[in-house]
Amino acid sequence: MRSEDLIALLQQDLAPVRRLPPPGVRLARWLLLVLPAMAVIVAAMGLRPDLAEHLAEPRFVAEALAALATGLAAAWAALASTVPGTPTRRLALPALPAALWLATIGEGCWREWLVLGPDSLVPALEPQCLPEIAAISIVPLAVLVLLARRGAALAPALTAALSALAAAALASAALSLFHHAEAAMVVLVWHFGGVALLSGLAALSGRRLFAVAA
Amino acid sequence: MPPRDDDSGQWSRWMAAAQDGDGAAYGRVMAALLPVVRRMVARRLPGSGEREDVVQEVLLTVHTVRHTYDPARPLLPWLAAIVAHRCADLRRGEARQVRRTSSIDDLPETIGAVEPNMMAMDVATLGRAMAALPERQRRALELVKLREMSVADAAAATGMTPGALKVTVHRAIKALKGMLTG
After folding, report:
1. A169 lies in which domain range?
2. CA angle B63–A149–B174, rounded 5-degree value
3. Residues A137-157: what's their mean pLDDT?
């Protein structure tokens, strides 16, 4: 078949399509659906008793806000990645808050190391928090994948990784509101490391998640 | 007069009209984009004998994802991303085919009789050829030819129009023939 004939065929009975809203609008829809679900989870688990005390600590607040910002930036980037032609540098947006998040955790680890030495590594030896983060991520991830599938995921592994990063970072931020006090090394290994692990696993299943969409 | 690459403002308006269901505007923008796509594909795949196939893949993808175009933005970066994706798809498919083809000689014969082995080999070869098809072609072929779904049902399942689905199945069969006889 000639390409000119293909165009003629595609042109026949052309159906109108619903234009994909900009990533910012889709991000707002995601938050509208996901934030109430996260609020219910936090309320069901109960706020940690020492939350007010922790909210006075700049490091705790910076860490939670950086995790939240990573989640929001990654969700925006995941949705933007389904619009062909979005510049790659924009899709790297989550790297900034993620670096800030890592820096705040790293600073905490350094302080613990100065006080405890090698003993500060001990709490991280047992898997903690990861199952909770994975469980809390399910709803935000599912909603984000559904929203992303409306677009064209030309790079499915990237879209899947960004989606998982968004959901897991948001889950980590939520977890810090109700989980008991944790060592910085635990946060580094099981929060940040867990989020990275979940993103990597999602990237591997990207083609399956977005097969029909592109 | 041949279309120029700096007509993108007009192309954006035509594509916006096409998103609203204007078939004539769609025909105009696709005809204008065709030489642009050919040039982009030629730059990315110099010397490839499948360039026109890739061009048609690009046209089909443009058709499938035309709702993702934002008329407030230039059309060419959007188109270039689709072209890059389809060219990369072809390279991946070729690489897969080379890997799989080279391993066929290593398949062990488990049954003494020649004929069952030949049949098993045919099925295995067909399976590999199917796996080497672009995702959309494989899915269309599976739904229509293997699961025997109607064109309308398969079109609904894949999000393509019936016309685009028929073209995709046709192209998948052509590609399979090429792989199995080439």
Report:
1. 22-209
2. 45
3. 92
**Within chain A, how many helices (H) and strands (E) appear?**
11, 0
Which residue in A11, A85, A87 is closest to B26 by CB distance? A11
Architecture of the domain made up of B1-96: Orthogonal Bundle (1.10)
**A6, part of any domain:** no
Ranges of each domain in chain B: 1-96, 111-182
Distance of alpha carbon B55 from alpha carbon B49, whole angstroms: 12
Q: What is the pLDDT of residues B39-74, one digit of tens each?
A: 999 999 887 777 888 999 999 999 999 999 999 999
Q: Are B66 and A82 in contact (CB under 8 A)?
A: no
Burial class of residue B144 (count of CB atoms within 10 Å of its CB; 0-12, 13-18, 19+): buried
Between A120 and A172, whose confidence is greater? A172
Q: Which of A12, A13, A14 is the mutation pick for testing B, counting most B CBs within 10 A? A: A14
Contact: B23, A12; criterion CB under 8 Å: yes
Chain B residue with the nearest C-alpha to that of A8: B27
Q: How many CB pairs under 8 A join A and B?
A: 109
Q: Which of B65, B133, B170 to mutate to test the interface with A (most CBs of A within 10 A)?
A: B65
Say yes or no: ipTM exceeds 0.95: no
**B72/chain A closest Cα distance in angstroms:** 10
Task: Report chain A's mean pLDDT, rounded to a whole number.
Answer: 87
